[in-house]
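Practice problem: Integration host factor-like helix-two turn-helix domain-containing protein
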Amino acid sequence: MALPTLTPEQRQEALKKAAAARTARKELRDAIARGDETIPAVLDRAKSDAIVGKTKVADLLKSLPGYGPAKVSALLEKTGIDASRRAAGLGDRQRQALLDALK
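Answer key — structure tokens:
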């Protein structure tokens, strides 16, 4: 299936929308790093909030203080969550396993 051809105005609008989404995800990760947001609270919003839902779980975990790529990879492997999984795509069991592993 070919991508639709966009007018220059539609392309600019799409680029602005994508940049705004990236900025919002960055702000979410920064809030987690500061401690203003918690992983359980963020995952609760994943189904209703498009920005949270489209953020990769690995990126959310890397935002936690003390969690780097190696620790996050080990945690995801332990809980059976694929590294490319997005927050909205977590099943109930995966979500609970992740929250239990973070305690």
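Discussion: Residues 56-102 form a domain with the Helicase, Ruva Protein; domain 3 fold (CATH 1.10.8.50). Students who identified this feature from the tokens alone can consider the problem solved.
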